Amino acid sequence: xxxxxxxxxxxxxxxxxxxxxxxxxxxxxxxxxxxxxxxxxxxxxxxxxxxxxxxxxxxxxxxxxxxxxxxxxxxxxxxxxxxxxxxxxxxxxxxxxxxxxxxxxxxxxxxxxxxxxxxxxxxxxxxxxxxxxxxxxxxxxxxxxxxxxxxxxxxxxxxxxxxxxxxxxxxxxxxxxxxxxxxxxxxxxxxxxxxxxxxxxxxxxxxxxxxxxxxxxxxxxxxxxxxxxxxxxxxxxxxxxxxxxxxxxxxxxxxxxxxxxxxxxxxxxxxxxxxxxxxxxxxxxxxxxxxxxxxxxxxxxxxxxxxxxxxxxxxxxxxxxxxxxxxxxxxxxxxxxxxxxxxxxxxxxxxxxxxxxxxxxxxxxxxxxxxxxxxxxxxxxxxxxxxxxxxxxxxxxxxxxxxxxxxxxxxxxxxxxxxxxxxxxxxxxxxxxxxxxxxxxxxxxxxxxxxxxxxxxxxxxxxxxxxxxxxxxxxxxxxxxxxxxxxxxxxx
Length: 492
Fold this sequence. Notes:
By secondary structure, this protein is mostly beta strands. About 5% of the residues lie in helices and about 25% in strands. The N and C termini lie far apart (about 80 Å).
C-alpha cells in the first residue's frame, strides 16, 4: 500500500518497475536518481514520483486524471497506455513529447487541457472520442503531422483547433464535433460562420475578439440549444448579434417541441430577436441564455420551466412577463437592467427570488411577492425607482442586503410578521414614511434588523403595528388593521 522515503533512491541500473494499484502513497525521493528507468507500469498517483527523462514506455493502470505537466518534455517517450478510468488530461500533460507517434484516448476522457499535446511533433494519429466536451487552448499546437487544414481552418480529428486570423467566412465540416478553446481567437476579419448540427461543445474563448462577425448560420435549433458553451466568448452570436436558421434571420424565435433545456449563453447578445416562445418541454433556461437581447420585448415561457437561470434575460427590452406556475426559483440577475419592464407576475410556485433578480428594472411600478416565497435576495429590487407598491407574502423570513435600495418611489411598505431578519441597506434611498407591520410591537422588537443604512426602519418614523389593534383604544394612534381585502392597512 505504500513505498517509503528513498526506497529506491540511486538505483541507477533499474530499467523498469511495476507499481500495483494498491499503492496509495509514495515517499519522498522514492525513485530519486533512477537514471536508467525507461519503462513503468503504474497508477496515475505515481506519475509525479517517477523520473521521466529517459522514459520510453508507460502503462497507466488506474486513476482519473493525468495532471499538470505529468510527462512534460519526455522526449524519449514513444508509447503511453491510458486506462478507461481517466477523465481528464491536464495542462501540458504531454507537452514536448516529440517521440510520441500515436496515442489512444479512451472514451472515459471528457476534457483535454491547455497545451496538453503542445509540440508533440511526432504525433501522426489520434482519435478524440465523443465523450470529450472541452479542448483547451493550443492543446495540439505544433502537432504539424496531426493537423489537417481545410479552408484556413485547422482540424484534429473532428475538432476545430485553430484558424487563420485573416479568414473572412467559414463553413465548418459537416461532422465537426466541437470547437476548441481560442480556436478563432482574434479572427477580427471573420464576418460569417456556419456551424453544423453535429457541434456539441465550443470552448470558452473560441470567438473572443471576433469583432467583425455579422452572421452566424445554423441548420438545427434544437442542436443549437444543446451546445455546451464555455462562456459568452464561446458563442459567436455574442459578436454577430444575428442568428440565421437555414439562411433566414431569426427574429421571432420558437424553440422546438422536445427541447428540454436552453443552454447557458445560447442566445446571448442576439439583438435581432424580438420575441421568444418556449415550449412546455423545456424545464430550465440557462445562465445568460437571452442576456443582452435588447430588441426582445415579448417572451412566452412554457409550463414546464422550473428554473430561470442567472442573468437569463438581463439587459433585455422586455415590457411585461408572466412567469408560469411551474417555476420554483428566479435566479441571480435574471431580469437585471430590464428597464422597459413595467409588469411582472410571480406565481405561487416560486420559493426564492435571487440576488439582483430585478435590479434596475426602473419601469416596474408594482410587484406582488406571493406567499410561497421565503426569501428576497440581496439587491433583488435595487434601483427600481418606479416602484410605488410592493406586497410581500406572509412566508418571507428574510429581506436581503439592499433589497429595495434606491426605490425612491416607495413611500409605504407592509412587512409580514413572518420576517425574522432585514439586512443592511435594505431600504436605503427609498422614500418610506410609513411602515406597516403585520405583527405586534413586541414581535417587531425581536426582528434582527441591521441598523447600517436602515434609518427608514430604525429612526423616529411612524410604525403601525396591525396585530396590536384589537388590544388598544380606538384613538387613531399607531395601530392599524387590515381592510376586508386582508391586504390594505386601514387606520383603526
